[in-house]
Amino acid sequence: MPRKLRELLRDLEKAGFRNRGGKGSHRNFEHPSGARITISGKLGDDAKLYQEREVRQKIHEAAR
Known about the structure:
Elements: H1 5-14, E1 18-19, E2 26-30, E3 36-40, H2 49-63
C-alpha cells in the first residue's frame, strides 16, 4: 500500500527540510545543506513510487 503525501512531507520536516511554499499543489522544500525537492499533489493523495524514492534520496543527501 503506497504511503500518503502527508507522510513524505512529515519525513522531510523531521530531516530538517523547510517548506518554502509553492504554487498550486506544489510544495518546495529546502534543507540548510542546500538540498532541494519539490513535491506535488494533495496531502491525502497516494505518493507515487518516484516521489518516495526521491524523498529517501534527498534525505540521505542532506544527511551527508
